[in-house]
Amino acid sequence: MERAGAGEHRERLAAFGARCGSAEVAEWAMQANRNPPQLKSFDRYGQRIDEVEFHPAYHQLMALGIGAGVSSAAWSGASAGHVLHTALEFLMAQAEPGVCCPMTMTYASLAALENQPELLAEWKPRILSSEYDGSSQPAKAKRGATIGMAMTEKQGGSDVRANTTRASRNADGSYNLVGHKWFCSAPMSDAFLTLAYADGGLTCFLVPKLSARKVAACAPSLTWCITPAWTAFWRRRHICDRRWRTPCGTRPTAPPFKESSSISR
Q: What's the CA gap between 240 and 47, in Å, rounded?
């Protein structure tokens, strides 16, 4: 840390390291691994909701890391911010590496959003928030937000050039994305950086998990992969979690197989 110019953060890192190594946090990690997330596709009325239920220990770990700045420290103006981020991430991983995935994606998302100033202005305050909000509601109503990524597909894996998800532009400048994603960690993130082919080639879109837009009625989608689901507050879901997959590791954030018809900007 001294050699990399981040020596002034010694006390902050020592305190966070002690917390990560505490018996209480170790118990959270064990509980999160013993009780992996559960996909809840439908509510009691048969409406599609695609909620992922996490054990309370998962949320406690997320609150610990985000509160400490794992996802935000690099962009907060602190000296040697990316070095600080790396050290915080390393310490968090000693407690539970599974929750580092959503925090790392949230950290990385700002670099991509800088290419779209209006999106950056809207999302940056939520991403830099030190308050974790695990509730399922549109990001505009939340104190803080996490960002996931939906890149790979069954037929291509890491070769994203083989992706088949397509993006068509709407009259209002937004896009409609139709396709599937084979691997998507942290499925309850508030938005996802998602790859799809647009007219100009393979493009990265920001796809919100939920929309606050109010509509008059619920009608089945014409696309093959999703039937829209609505909550009691008329929030439309953009992404449909079709199937849950069990990984060899990172059980607290097991990735689902996703299919989606999504509105993005």
A: 12
